[in-house]
């Protein structure tokens, strides 16, 4: 959960553009097209890039479907190489255009941009790795920047802030859940006697997680009376315990909206009254000009 | 989610009656029966219509059950045609009676009314399409209007308002969830090696959705140790992440009741400013004594 | 949901003792033992009754387990008849002891007390009905009264009040969910072509409920690509939509604690200031005695 | 739920160190190493202990995996005995070092410390019991103390306080849920006629729990039309009812942060009254100017 919050923060705050090159050269112009979305050219570049990402991810997905691969495999692989070449060119262009290429290369954006092309290149050597290309989807998060949706960023920040503020509470909660799952998983292994799918403690813990989170695949399920009783307890616990993270986040999200921002932090020099309306020009208590 | 909110809004706000015909003709009378529910006749018409909708939907459902269809099929089809004829007559009556037939025909209500009869007509040509008749259930939402349950509409509006106010937050959340599901689905495809049901990336993404949402059919479930570990992480994430939409909506629903009561409902007689602090004795905008 | 709220309210408010008999006779004494829990005798009677209920429910459960029934069946049936006789005696005693027997017989408590013995009696004639005896568990709700746990009753009332206050919102929500489930269920029937378990529209609707509520048995699960896509949409909807009832109840439960009871509803006769602390004896603005 | 709250409270509050031995002897020094984490030695001891716990739990888990056990079984058992010896030594050292050994032995920490070594010793006599060693994971909760994460303890206390404050509400809720599950489980047994997995009432109740909590294994699922209808009702109930514990905990967590800020933090110099209204100029109790 914490890593999720960190990830989001990184995505939203960390997606800051690297510093532009100095001077008014062609580099500066290219920079504004590639990194910014204020000009029509920059906007079009970003929208085109987004479509390229979506399409290339779709190609990789289709390639994995056996029937489609059997028929259109070679074509799909060609399309994929075209996309990878485009992304490679784009990556190199970004490196060339920024002021400090290394800073960009090791920034979050730079690493994602690199990972988006690496798998295809590696697949020349190591078969199978090309599927990791789906890391490209992470690039889709750029969408929030392209449309300059300040609104979305604000909302994203709201979620991230709430998650960050409650990350210690959630960590405590997860530690308790993990301990619970390990203890009950082991008990089930002993109770079901290593049969009915509970063939080892790790597998029983896996079952306990499947049950506590109310996923319930049914690939492993208790058969003995004692096992089913224990499972019932775990299920009801899981059902009730979900109230904890939900309550934490709800409470967190409900509080930030109430504090004093609805009042202006100005003190009247006559009567010292505070908490004026944000637009107030006169003191509400003595009528003095603020 | 946004489309759900839009849909609800459309249903509740958009269910406004089309304009009545001018003059005090028979049309006006028919209009009041068909479109309004204030008079006993209009009320009875609407309740009758509601029952017809419920019964016709039931008939279509029963028709799809093989054993019932084998025995009562012909009768059910006759009943269905009777209902469709009735709805067709009603639809035509609505078109005749309103001031601007085209406006009605392309309003939300008009389109639903049309779709409720179209499938049966189309089924003359294209077999199978008659099941789409269940779109008729959408007409059941009229129930809120018939009983003039201002209370229900108010409550519906409350839910819609909360969903609308949080739609950007929910959209950001869904984008993050979708990205997560695509990335983990692909990883699982690689990890399970295209076996154990993870036969393609789209199928693995389907599995990831089944797991993250805690549905857990069990038609596909990981078998390898690494796969089960990854699945456990996804499950716990799904279990914890549900706190986010819940928190968003809870916080949204908890706030609207607090805001304005913190202001005094007095209008300044000089500058017409409202929303003064509860204890204010002077106008915050012009300094006039309230 | 509404019926649940009504049920709870009935249980908690409606569990009022029927009127005691007039005069200071032996009836009055018996009444205090059977209906009240203030005296040691009344308390012991109630605790004994509670244990009898728990044990008799356990006996019925055990009887239904084939292996136990084969071995101990006759004994269990004897025990059950003993319990039923006891409950019959208790029921008759209650009828004799109250002021108006008919009022008690048709009160909620009286009906539950009757239903708790009826199945065993009926089972003499109609085999199988004896399992309905489990209605006896409803009598367990008496526990809240026995221990005079005013605290528990208060908490129960809190939950009931929150559910009652939000019952219209929840009804609107359930109507929307039901419509959604019917429409998507039918679509799935058409999409999966009546195969893979989707053999009829009612069955498909059953599947849609299993999926939307994130239960996910897996007895029916989509196989076609289009079906799995539709299922994914339904799952994500179900995952996000759960925020609505949760938000409604959370908001409802969070509000009652805040309203103005923290201020005294008195107006100062000198400066007209309101919103004094509950214990205030002097006006906070002008210092005048209230 | 209550027991969970109690457990947490015990863990966090009850993890107080037993009293140190009197005097400035070697015992006092050993005590500070073993029980405290302020000195570098104490900190290292605790971190080492933590790693030993994690490793020993992992060893027990691996031992339960058949393929690993077949190959490395003897080595794993040796490692386990080494860890158990270490923990035994540690336990004895703790007993020796504290002022009152018996108080420690019967404190929560002492019992957990004992249970962490008992299973291996017992396994000499009773095979199979060694798996209970996983109780050792409970010792992992020490982690919160080692890093002196006052923050974590505070957050843990926050969760515990919210759970404690709502424990009566949750108990009422669980009683209602249990009654519901027993009644519906029995009904299903009657409806499905003891077939399709509903072979006894306890098994049907197990199914009802699996369904209501939205786990849904699918090992038992209704087949008859009436059974599926009843199941649908139960599922929707379970889906809606989860709003209750969530709402309880959310409301509880949201309230503690709001109360007192509505009062002015000034103490009346005459009557010592606190908690005045934010704008108060005069004491609400004695009318003195503040």
What does this entry look like structurally?
The structure is a homotetramer of 290-residue chains. By secondary structure, chain A is mainly α. The first copy, chain A, folds into 2 domains: 2-148, Four Helix Bundle (Hemerythrin (Met), subunit A); 165-254, Helix Hairpins (Orthogonal Bundle). Chain A contains 13 helices and no strands.
What can be said about this structure in brief?
The structure is a homotetramer of 290-residue chains. Helices cover 63% and strands 0% of the residues of chain A.
Entry keywords:
homotetramer; 290 residues; mainly alpha; Four Helix Bundle (Hemerythrin (Met), subunit A); Helix Hairpins; 2 domains; disordered N terminus
Topology readout:
The structure is a homotetramer of 290-residue chains.
Chain A: H1 2-13, H2 26-35, H3 40-64, H4 66-97, H5 101-105, H6 108-115, H7 118-123, H8 143-146, H9 150-165, H10 167-191, H11 201-212, H12 225-241, H13 243-254
Helix pairs in contact in A: 1-9, 2-3, 2-4, 3-4, 10-11
CATH class of the largest domain in chain A: Mainly Alpha
The topology string of helices and strands of chain A comes to HHHHHHHHHHHHH
- Based on DSSP secondary structure assignment, what is the total number of beta strands of chain A? 0
Indicate the low-confidence ranges of chain A by residue numbers: 1-14, 257-262
Characterize the quaternary organization of these chains: homotetramer
What is the CA-atom radius of gyration of chain A, in angstroms? 27 Å
The chain-level structural class of chain A is mainly alpha
Terminal-residue CA separation of chain A: 46 Å
Please indicate the percent range of residues of chain A in DSSP E strands (runs of 2 or more).
Answer: under 5%
Sketch the major β-sheet of chain A. none
Helix content of chain A: 55-70%
> Any idea how many domains of chain A?
2
Shape of chain A: flat
Biggest interface found? A-B, 71 and 65 residues
CATH superfamily of the largest domain in chain A: Voltage-gated potassium channels. Chain C
User: Can you tell me the CATH topology of the largest domain in chain A?
Assistant: Four Helix Bundle (Hemerythrin (Met), subunit A)
Average of the residue pLDDT scores of chain A: 75
Quickly count the helices of chain A: 13
CATH architectural type of the largest domain in chain A: Up-down Bundle
């Amino acid at each position: 959960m914490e890593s999720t919050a960190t990830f989001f923060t990184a995505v939203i705050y960390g997606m800051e553009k690297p510093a532009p090159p100095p001077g008014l050269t062609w580099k500066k112009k290219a920079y504004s097209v590639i990194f910014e979305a204020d000009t029509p050219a920059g906007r079009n570049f970003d929208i085109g890039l987004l479509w390229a990402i979506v399409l290339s991810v779709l190609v990789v997905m289709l390639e994995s479907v056996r029937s489609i691969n059997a028929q259109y495999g070679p074509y799909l692989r060609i399309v994929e190489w075209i996309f990878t070449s485009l992304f490679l060119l784009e990556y190199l262009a970004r490196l060339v255009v920024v002021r400090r290429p290394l800073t960009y290369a090791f920034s979050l954006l730079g690493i994602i941009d690199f990972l988006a092309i690496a798998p295809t290149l590696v697949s020349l050597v190591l078969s199978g790795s090309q599927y990791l290309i789906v890391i490209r989807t992470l690039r889709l998060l750029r969408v929030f920047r392209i449309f300059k949706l300040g609104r979305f960023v604000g909302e994203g920040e709201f979620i991230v802030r709430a998650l960050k503020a409650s990350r210690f509470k959630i960590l405590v909660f997860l530690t308790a859940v993990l301990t619970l799952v390990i203890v009950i998983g082991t008990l089930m292994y002993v109770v079901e006697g290593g049969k009915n799918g509970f063939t080892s403690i790790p597998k029983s813990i896996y079952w306990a997680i499947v049950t506590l989170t109310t996923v319930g695949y049914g690939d492993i399920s208790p058969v003995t009376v004692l096992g089913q009783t224990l499972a019932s307890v775990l299920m009801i616990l899981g059902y009730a315990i979900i109230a904890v993270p939900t309550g934490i986040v709800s409470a967190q999200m409900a509080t930030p909206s109430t504090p004093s921002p609805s009042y202006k932090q100005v003190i009247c020099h006559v009567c010292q009254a505070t908490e004026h309306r944000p637009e107030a020009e006169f003191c509400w208590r003595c009528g003095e000009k603020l």
